[in-house]
Amino acid sequence: MEPRFLLLSDVATELNVSDSQVYHMVRSGELPAIKIGGRGQWRVERARLEEYIQRKYAETAEWVRTNPLAERDSE
Questions:
Q1: In 28, 55, 56, 57, which residue has its Cα 20 to 30 A from 63's Cα atom?
Q2: CA 21, CA 43: separation in Å to the nearest integer?
């Protein structure tokens, strides 16, 4: 059974980005997370990470639709 909550380092591994990038995503509100414990450690719920990934797929698809590849003229 997979854990419900992930460490930021686990999220970084899943997304293949740096820990600092994930921390910035959390602090900016782009990726929902919670702070728990006396030291306020960040945790990301696996379901929220999956929602984030699906949202990014949708945003990317929209970007691709509105920014088609331009044919280059042959010189």
A1: 28
A2: 15
